[in-house]
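Narrative of activities, Objective 1.

The group set out to show that a structural description can be obtained from nothing but a protein's sequence at a throughput compatible with the screening campaign. Below is one input-output pair from the validation batch, recorded exactly as produced.
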Amino acid sequence: MKILNLYAGIGGNKKLWTPSGNEHEITAVENKPEIAKIYADFFPNDKVIVADAHEYLLKHFEEFDFIWSSPPCPTHSRFNLLNNAPFKENRNIKYPDMGLYQEIIHLKHWFKGKWCVENVISYYDPLIPPTESNSHYFWTNFLIPSFPNQVRKIKRTNENDILREEIIGIDLSKYDLPTRFRRTLINNCVEPQTGKRILEYAINPIETQASLNFAP
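Output recorded for this entry:
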C-alpha cells in the first residue's frame, strides 16, 4: 500500500504501520528540516520530503492508497481559547486555520482511497462532525471506534517527559533539544497504537457502527 503521511512530525502515528520494515511504501512530508531529520533517523525506509504538506496534498493525492494528515492544531485548540481569555494580558487572537477543513473537504470529494485527518478537540463545535477520541478528533471515510490514550493522562512535567516518550516508544535522548521543543514533539504525536488501529480499519473496513463493538 502506498501511504502519504502529512505533517509527519517525528512519526508517532506511523511507528507501528511497518513493524517489520517494508509492509507499506510510505512518503512522509514535514516542513521543518530539523524535525524531518529526526523522522528520517527513526524510519530510514520511508521517503521523507521537506515541504508544505498542505500544498503537497493538493498536487500528489492521487498517487496514494491511504492518506493521513495532521494539520497544525494551535488555532483550533481549547488552549487557544484559554490563553486568549478576556482577562489575559498580551492576547494573541488568531482566526482558526481553515486549511484543516479544506483538506477534509478535498479528500472527501476527490480522493478515491482511504483517508484520516487528525486534530485536537477544538474550542468551537467542529464544522464537520468527527470521531472524538480523548483529546483528538479524527475525520475518516471509514468507521473507527474511540481509542484510549495513555499519553494524555500523564501530567506534563519534566519528570514525566521520559515516561511519555516510553509510551510513544520514541527515544529523543541522543538529540540536543531544548526541553520545551522536545516536549512539543512528543505532545504532537498520536499514540502509535492508535495510528496502527486506524490503518487496520482502513485496510479492513467495518461495515456498520454496531460491528465496532465486536472488532478486535
